[in-house]
Write a structure and sequence with these properties.
With 273 residues, the protein is α+β, with helices and mostly antiparallel strands. It contains eight helices and eleven strands. The chain is globular. The chain starts with 5 loop residues before the first helix and ends in a 6-residue tail after the last strand.
Length: 273
């Protein structure tokens, strides 16, 4: 097995992004670069040099249409995986996978369908009722974490045990539930397509308390990202400041290093167990 370099993983991610852009154009829907990918586009005109993750946002209606049609419209190399087509899908967000690659995570047992991916996050309008559901969502996310125990590596199990030391409402039954059950509950509670002044995207426990101004997504502008021109929200400055603060300032040199969650990534045709 020949491990892919960071540059090769980044290149594979660009291929996924190009296919997402093509399919979205075919469907007449929008997406936006998100989180560290948005930061990379604005600050580096591409990847943050010590990162290979790619995150994108879609508003809920576009997100659901995209997930229902992507595998039909995409070429065979790229597939969308979520609770819609994976029985024990553990992740809170769908992943768009380059099926010609294979990856192994630090925290989860070997997963045959997992390859270099792009994470897809829905954006939902936020009503007052949605804000009031925040703590319920946090509790569901805690239960989802517990449900990952059986799918976790030894490192992942140790992390989950440590995590549960600080929780007061963990039950043994939480460890035996299909994680997809909690993923679907979180999305159903979060789902709102009626216009409101604020939006939210479910990415982690902390994200449930992070609200964005709807106006920041009013329009799309295009920014260079490596060899592609990709859509970013017109209010990117407000969004990035909310998440990262003074985002144009580089972190200290000691922190500019790759600290990914993968054990390895390789080309499928070079993978042997």
């Amino acid at each position: 097995m020949v491990k892919m370099s960071i540059a090769e993983r980044q290149q594979a991610g660009l291929g996924i992004l190009a296919e997402i852009k093509r399919v979205c154009a075919d469907l007449g829907i929008n997406f936006y670069l998100a989180y560290g990918t948005l930061l990379g586009a604005v600050r580096h005109k591409g990847y943050i040099p010590w990162d290979d993750d790619i995150d994108i946002w879609m508003f809920r209606n576009d997100y659901e249409l995209f997930l229902s049609r992507f595998n039909e419209l995409s070429c065979e190399q790229y597939k969308a995986y979520s609770t819609l087509n994976i029985e024990n899908y553990p992740y809170l967000m769908p992943k768009i996978i380059d099926t010609h690659t294979h990856v192994r995570e630090k925290f989860f047992s070997e997963c045959p369908y997992l390859g270099v991916w792009v994470d897809l996050f829905p954006v939902d309008y936020l009503s007052q009722e949605g804000k009031e559901n925040t703590e319920k969502l946090v509790k569901l996310e805690h239960k989802r974490w517990c449900s990952l125990f059986r799918q976790s590596t030894a490192v992942g199990k140790a992390k989950l045990i440590g995590y549960n030391f600080i929780q007061t409402d963990t039950r043994l039954s939480d460890f035996s539930v299909n994680p997809a059950y909690y993923v679907n509950l979180i999305h159903e509670m979060h789902r709102c397509t009626d216009y409101h002044d604020e939006v939210r995207s479910p990415t982690s426990e902390n994200s449930f308390r992070l609200f964005y101004d709807t106006n920041d997504f009013d329009s799309i502008i295009y920014a260079p990202f490596e060899n592609l021109e990709l859509p970013i929200p017109s209010g990117y400055d407000n969004l990035l400041r909310k998440v990262y603060g003074n985002y144009m300032q580089l972190p200290p040199a000691a922190k500019r290093k790759f600290d990914g969650h993968l054990i390895y990534a390789c080309k499928k045709d070079e993978y042997t167990k």
